[in-house]
Write a structure and sequence with these properties.
This is Universal stress protein. By secondary structure, the protein is an alpha/beta fold. It has 10 helices and 12 strands.
Length: 282
C-alpha cells in the first residue's frame, strides 16, 4: 500500500495541500499520514529535579493530536464526496527537527506533500526555508503546492532536466506517476546559447533512455533561463513542474540570481522536487 506523508501546521495553506493530497491518494490507492511537528520547547534548570519544560509537552501533544484529528475528520468527509476514494487517514505528531524527522520516516512513505505559504513553490527553495530543509533531507519526492494554486490532478507535467544521473531515477518515478494519473509529460532542457558543453556522455545516456520509451527532450535556448521556464509553463498550460534537487546545483543554475525571486513570486505552479538522496518506491 502506498502512503503519502502530508505535513500540516493547521494553516489554510496546509489545508489546501491536504485536499490536493486526498485527490492524489484516491488515484494512487494510497493512504495518508497527517504529520504535525511541535514547536521548539525551551527548557529551564531546576535546583533539585533537573531540567523542566516551561510548558507541558503532554498538553502540547494533546493539542496537536486534537487539531490533527479535526483535520483528518474533515478530510474523511471530503473523501466521501470523491468517487473511488477509500483513503485511510492516520495522524502523527512529533517534535524536534521537521527535516530530520521526515528523513527518518522516508522509508515508510512514497511522497511528502506540503503547502507553500505564498508565491510559487520554487520561491521557497531560494529563501533557505524549512521547505528547502525538508527537500534536502527527505529520501522521497516532495510535492510543494503554492497557496494560491487551483490545484487538481495535473493534465500537463514538465520535467526540467540537466542530464544528471539522478534524473533517470526521477524519470522512472514520473513515468509510473503518469501512468497512474494519466497526465502528459514533457521533458525540457534549458541552456544558454553560448554554453560550452565539455561532457556529452550524460546527455547521450539520458536521450537513449528517453528514446527506448518513445520520448524525447526539447532543448530551449535562452539567455535568462528562469523566465524561459516560466514562459514554457504558461504557454503549455503546465500544472506541475518537476526537477531533481542535487544540493541546489540545477535549481541555482535556473534561479540563482536575486532578481529571479521577484519574477517567480507570482508563478502559481506546483512543484515536485526529487531530493539528493531520492529512493524510488512508487
Amino acid at each position: 500500500m502506498k502512503k503519502l506523508l502530508v505535513l500540516t501546521d493547521f494553516s489554510a495553506n496546509a489545508a489546501h495541500a491536504e485536499a490536493a493530497a486526498l485527490q492524489l491518494s484516491a488515484k494512487l490507492n494510497a493512504d495518508i499520514t497527517l504529520y504535525h511537528i511541535l514547536p521548539y520547547i525551551p527548557m529551564i534548570l531546576s535546583n533539585s529535579a533537573g531540567p523542566l519544560m516551561t510548558e507541558s509537552t503532554d498538553i502540547l501533544f494533546e493539542d496537536s493530536i486534537e487539531h490533527l484529528n479535526k483535520e483528518a475528520n474533515e478530510l474523511r468527509q471530503l473523501c466521501d464526496k470523491i468517487t473511488g476514494c477509500h483513503t485511510r487517514i492516520d495522524c502523527l505528531s512529533g517534535d524536534g527537527s521537521l527535516a530530520d524527522n521526515v528523513r527518518e520516516m522516508s522509508g515508510a512513505i512514497d511522497m511528502v506533500i506540503m503547502g507553500g505559504r505564498s508565491g510559487s513553490a520554487i520561491s521557497h527553495l531560494l529563501a533557505g526555508s524549512e521547505t528547502s530543509a525538508v527537500i534536502s533531507k527527505a529520501r522521497k519526492p516532495v510535492f510543494v503546492i503554492p497557496a494560491g494554486a487551483n490545484w487538481d490532478i495535473p493534465k500537463k507535467v514538465v520535467f526540467a532536466t540537466n542530464f544528471q544521473a539522478a534524473d533517470l531515477a526521477a524519470m522512472d518515478f514520473l513515468l509510473s506517476l503518469a501512468e497512474a494519473l494519466n497526465f502528459q509529460l514533457d521533458i525540457i532542457h534549458i541552456s544558454r546559447p553560448d554554453e560550452v558543453i565539455t561532457e556529452i556522455g550524460p546527455e547521450i545516456a539520458f536521450r537513449k533512455y528517453l528514446a527506448h520509451r518513445g520520448l524525447s527532450c526539447v532543448r530551449i535556448f535562452s539567455e535568462d533561463m528562469q523566465p524561459a521556464l516560466q514562459q514554457y509553463c504558461q504557454e503549455h498550460d503546465v500544472e506541475l513542474l518537476a526537477m531533481t534537487h542535487q544540493h541546489h546545483s540545477f535549481i541555482s543554475k535556473l534561479f540563482g540570481h536575486s532578481e529571479s525571486k521577484a519574477v517567480i513570486a507570482h508563478q502559481q505552479v506546483a512543484a515536485l522536487i526529487f531530493p539528493p538522496d531520492f529512493n524510488q518506491s512508487l
